[in-house]
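Thanks for the sequence, V.! I ran Outer membrane protein assembly factor BamD right away. Repeating your input here for the record:
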Amino acid sequence: MKSGLSLVRIFGFALLCLSLAGCGQEGKLARGEVPLETYTAEQIFERGEFEVNRKRFEDGAKYFGEVERLYPYSTWAKRAVIMQAYAFHRAKDYENSRSSAQRYIDFYPTDEDAAYAQYLLALSYYDQIDDVGRDQGLTFQALQSLRAVIEGYPDSEYARASVLKFDLAFDHLAGKEMEIGRYYLKRDRFTAAINRFRVVVEVFQTTTHTPEALHRLVESYLSLGLAQEAQTAAAILGHNFRSSEWYEDSFALLSGQGLEPKFFKGNWLASAYRQTIKGEWL
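Predicted structure:
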């Protein structure tokens, strides 16, 4: 008896999938078919899942939207909103994914899936970060959204994933500063280059770009004849990254001018020295 009911349910769902296949944007089926409104919220939701499972994400998102439109106060509508955000994201429709995720957060801020909605919102920015050559506005928005996950839902699995992505996005911003700094350095615009490398050392000092930034500062300051600044940058580099190739290069540059890494007071690097070597976080 139980298996018979299961067969009936499977057969009924198969018929539903076939009949819903012609659904248009206005919630109607092709001419001669049954209107979408005659199906239950659960049936339409299942159709959305069916489309997502066969990787027709845009179609799935439309069905989830119909659940919300036709049955706005049902529990299926709540589930449909988060699934729509997911489907739009998989379709790379990041703007609509962000809109659905934000709507879920606004309507159901204390729900168990609110953390996932916030994570999807962050991903809608993060997944558009592809290379350092692009505008960094998306990176800043990704960082803000990822921080919202980390701080708002610290015990969730999404917080742990967000920490890793936050570090990568942070590193991405540092990479942009380095790219611009190198551009200026190659054109002998040393002051402009120093300003970019300084940002990396002061703001992004936990990223992978810090050793090179310190070396480029040594290079830039020596080019300007500012030996004490160059020596101080090399001293910080040697203390934190002594085994790196960047320290070896900086040491060679200084040695070529009869200098050695050494700390001097009286410049902005003194603050970086106190922070990174003496641990006096200001």
